[in-house]
Amino acid sequence: MPCYRCAQTVERAVASVAAQTVRPMELILVDDGNADETRSVLAALRDRHSPGWIKLVLLEQNVGAASARNAGWEAASGQFIAFLDADDSWHPRKIELQYRFMLAQPDIVMSGHGHAQVEGTPTLARLGEPVFYHLPAFYVLLKNPFITPSFMVRSDLAFRFLPGRRHMEDHLFLMRVTTAGLRIAKTKLPLAFIYKNIFGDAGLSADLWVMQHSELENYEILCREGRISQGMIHFFRVYSWIKFSRRVLIVRLRRLLAGKTGSR
Question: Scanning 17, 19, 153, 244, which has its CA 20 to 30 A from the CA of 192?
Fold first, then answer.
């Protein structure tokens, strides 16, 4: 769990990990160069739980979520790694259901799942059995199929998040994995909860132009690495701009509706 200026939300995130029906063997909190009270909050959370269960990785400089996740990955000792952001949370059965699938499918190097956007305390609906389906590389190139708090990867996977990358690093990671011919899978079950919109709200996703620039740069990186052709990159550029236009329209409509609601 990368932690940066998250003193107000990290306790909720940690509580959702501790409440798992199959509890992870360890929880690694990566202090991403905090200069506020976050570091003391993380230490207090560590001391509140059983000795050794929460490990703190302290980074002296802020390096961003991608590098922070890599630092946590290197400190982990389990067969599988699951990621959670400090302002999100998990459904209590997330680890149980996803871990069981990954154990049963050794050809799948990583999996993800759906999520629900909530306000306040999530309503925990009764879940059916998850149905996982394979995601082909071309689909992943077109669309980021699931959010980072849904990732579960095999710890010996050769790929890592691109160090220093601060936007769209999760999508680049997925595209690199799938264009290498490795198999990933998804279930639609909402096993993660987010408390803001995916884009256009607070946080790194707020700057839509920066996100767009990063997405285009992701395709350039894939092309330089020989994962997609020059012909393909032209197609993805056009497709990316269409998606960007749609995002801008959605954000503007959302703000317009919020303004009308607030003026009543």
Answer: 244
